[in-house]
DNA sequence: TCTGGGGTCCTAGGACCC
DNA sequence: TCTGGGGTCCTAGGACCC
């Protein structure tokens, strides 16, 4: 029989993480905001019921927050990352192959399981195990392709009578659920494409499943053609339990306050590149391409607009913060213009190599081994204390992001352990 | 006043080479 | 008057995801 895939997806993940340490907030309407407290990125069921959409800017829901006493939190990614790892560990303890797809969801390969077990029962077991061991509520969708598993999971979330678990391996049930699902809710169909599809008469997921793949490929793309196949039980997206190494690393932020001075921008970029280099070393890679970009706010229509980016190919791939720092300073000066209010900037590393496979180049500089030792030590100290940093980024700056409603790092900092009263 | 951040994949088009 | 064509590499941009 064909493969069987389950998708386990945490319910309102960031909200659930916050509630884990604040049981008094059960049933209280809550949102978690993005960086800079800009947009709603997670909503509790109560807030979804009020019609607050994902990604809505906070200032647009200020009144609702007031009226309904909605409790707001700044994103606490240290906490969410730690809880996420616990959820994934639990899944790995019950399924041989798990592919972590994002911070709050993972695919499990259940192929062959149905010979001896009920898939529905296994789904329920998974759900209760995660809830018991980690305390985070999840839904489970099971089917024969990733796209259908995703659909099953949406069904489990939407229809409470399912108890949060849907087995969608039967074609008849697949078609029934697809008939009730808007085409824009299919995984891989975004706003643009769903608009075009609807104007062409393809309104439900079932319409899309029954569309002619050749017609889809001609009018859309090979990507959407794959989605059509997946909806028909033909797997096109590999299970992928060994995630490939990253191909690029981006660190960028919107500023809490606009930047107008080159000195401040240099400092911000220095912070970004330092963080990017840390991520690069964690991947165990070296990068040869570095890009730096900045832009004013596209929303500030009355202000003069300017956005630019520039890049450099390094002589040799590296993961050394000092070399990347120097290069990023050259680049930012190349595109800097005075007289603008910059809202966002960032750096991007790409063109990665595995240093273990790298041949020594002819002109390999002496002292490189020292560089490696220095960087490793630095990363270790940083991990433990977050204190030792390159001089350029020590203090808090006025443009650092706003996080005015941040919960404590309950699980990762001794100083912020929850107290039992 | 106030609108996230970090990724992936695909395609089109230009530069360059033979 | 007639002014190649195909392959490859790179980049920018568009679409999607969470």
Describe this structure in words.
With 421 residues, the protein is α+β, with helices and mostly antiparallel strands. Among the domains are: 113-231, 5' to 3' exonuclease, C-terminal subdomain (DNA polymerase, domain 1), CATH 1.10.150.20; 249-353, DNA polymerase, Y-family, little finger domain (Dna Ligase, domain 1, 2-Layer Sandwich); 357-401, no CATH class. Helices cover 38% and strands 20% of the residues. The protein contains 14 helices and twelve strands. Helix 10 (213-219) packs antiparallel against helix 11 (222-231) and helix 12 (262-283) runs antiparallel to helix 13 (321-335). The model is unreliable at 360-367 and 385-394 (pLDDT under 50). The chain binds a DNA duplex (18 and 18 nucleotides) through residues 33-39, 41, 54-60, 62, 75, 101-105, 187-193, 221-223, 246-254, 297-299, 344, 346, 401.
Secondary-structure map:
Layout (H helix, E strand, L loop, with lengths): L4 E6 L2 H8 L9 E4 L6 E4 L1 H5 L12 H7 L2 E4 L2 H18 L3 E5 L2 E5 L9 H15 L4 E6 L2 H13 L6 E3 L3 H9 L11 H9 L5 H5 L3 H7 L2 H10 L16 E12 L2 H22 L2 E11 L10 E12 L2 H15 L6 E12 L14 H18 L36
Parallel strand pairs: 2-4, 7-8
Antiparallel strand pairs: 1-6, 1-7, 2-3, 5-6, 9-12, 10-11, 10-12
Helix pairs in contact: 4-5, 10-11, 12-13
This protein binds a DNA duplex (18 and 18 nucleotides) through helix 8 and strand 9.
């Amino acid at each position: 029989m064909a493969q069987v895939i389950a998708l386990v997806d945490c319910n309102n993940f960031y909200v659930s993480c916050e509630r884990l340490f604040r049981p008094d907030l059960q049933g209280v309407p809550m949102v978690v905001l993005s960086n800079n407290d800009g947009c709603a990125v997670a909503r509790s069921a109560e807030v979804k019921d009020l019609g607050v959409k994902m990604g809505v800017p906070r200032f647009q829901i200020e009144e609702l927050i007031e009226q309904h006493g909605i409790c707001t939190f700044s994103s606490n990614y240290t906490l969410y990352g730690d809880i996420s790892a616990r959820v994934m560990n639990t899944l790995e303890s019950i399924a041989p192959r798990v592919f972590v797809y994002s911070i709050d969801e993972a695919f499990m390969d259940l192929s062959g399981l149905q010979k001896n077990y009920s898939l529905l029962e296994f789904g329920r077991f998974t759900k209760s195990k995660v809830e018991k061991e980690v305390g985070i509520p999840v839904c489970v969708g099971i089917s024969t392709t990733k796209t259908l598993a995703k659909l099953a999971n949406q069904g489990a979330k939407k229809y409470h009578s399912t108890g949060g678990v849907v087995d969608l391996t039967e074609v008849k049930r697949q078609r029934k659920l697809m008939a009730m699902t808007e085409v824009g809710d299919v995984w891989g169909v975004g706003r643009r494409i769903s608009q075009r599809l609807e104007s062409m008469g393809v309104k439900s997921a079932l319409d899309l499943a029954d569309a002619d793949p050749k017609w889809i490929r001609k009018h859309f793309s090979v990507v959407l053609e794959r989605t059509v196949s997946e909806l028909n039980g033909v797997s096109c997206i590999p299970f992928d339990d060994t995630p490939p190494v990253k191909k690029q690393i981006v660190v960028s932020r919107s500023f809490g306050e606009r930047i107008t001075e080159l000195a401040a921008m240099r400092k911000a970029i220095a912070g970004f590149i330092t963080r990017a280099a840390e991520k690069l070393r964690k991947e165990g890679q070296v990068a040869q391409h570095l890009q730096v970009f900045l832009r004013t706010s596209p929303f500030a229509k009355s202000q003069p607009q300017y956005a630019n980016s520039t890049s450099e190919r390094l002589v040799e791939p590296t993961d050394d913060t000092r070399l990347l720092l120097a290069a990023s300073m050259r680049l930012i000066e190349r595109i800097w213009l005075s007289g603008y209010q910059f809202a966002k900037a960032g750096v991007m590393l790409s063109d990665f190599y595995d240093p273990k496979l790298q041949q020594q180049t002819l002109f390999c500089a002496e002292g490189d081994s020292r560089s490696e030792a220095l960087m490793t030590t630095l990363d270790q100290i940083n991990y433990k204390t977050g204190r030792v940093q390159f001089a350029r980024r020590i203090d808090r700056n006025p443009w650092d992001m706003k996080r005015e409603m941040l919960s404590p790092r309950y699980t990762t900092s001794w100083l912020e352990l929850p107290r039992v009263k």
